[in-house]
Amino acid sequence: MELTENHRRYWRKNLNITAILLAIWFVVTFVVGYFARDLNFTFFGWPFSFWMGAQGSLIVYVIIIWFYAHYMGKLDQEHGVAEEE
After folding, report:
1. Using 50, 70 and 90 to split pLDDT, how confident is the model at 23?
2. Which helix (H) or strand (E) element contains residue 16?
3. Of 3, 57, 71, 82, which has fewest CB within 10 angstroms of its CB?
4. Pick from 54, 81, 69: which is nearest to 21 by CA?
5. Confidence of residue 12 (pLDDT cuts 50, 70, 90)
6. Which residues have a Cβ under 8 Å from the Cβ of 24 and sit 6 or more positions away?
7. Rounded to an integer, what distance in angstroms lies between the CA atom of residue 68 and that of residue 22?
8. What DSSP assignment string belongs to 29-41?
9. What is the DSSP string of 33-82?
């Protein structure tokens, strides 16, 4: 099966947004967690390391999921591959 240029653009955009969101996930999960003790400042009244461990990371994960679903819905519409409702 030969891919059209439309399919290639769709797949390229999908891979790009996936790579960007995975990079954000990696930074939030490993980099911030690793350096959190060195980041000694108060964030919303709590130490930053505690806040990221208890709430911050989870909020970022939910935002990543929402953004990906929203972006892919728009991308599907743009390239004519959206599911019929």
Report:
1. very high
2. helix 5-26
3. 3
4. 69
5. very high
6. 60, 64
7. 11
8. IIIHHHHGGG---
9. HHHGGG---EETTEEHHHHIIIIIHHHHHHHHHHHHHHHHHHHHHHHT-P
Quick check: 64 and 24 in contact, CB under 8 A? yes
CB atoms closer than 10 angstroms to residue 79: 15
Give the dihedral sign, CA 70/72/76/79: positive
Both tokens of 13, joined, read 């955009």
Residue with tokens 């505690």: 50
Q: What value does the CA radius of gyration of the chain take, rounded to a whole number of Å?
A: 18
- Show the tokens assigned to 65: 């999921």
* Residue owning tokens 């939030």: 28
Please give the Cα distance from 53 to 69 (Å, whole number): 25
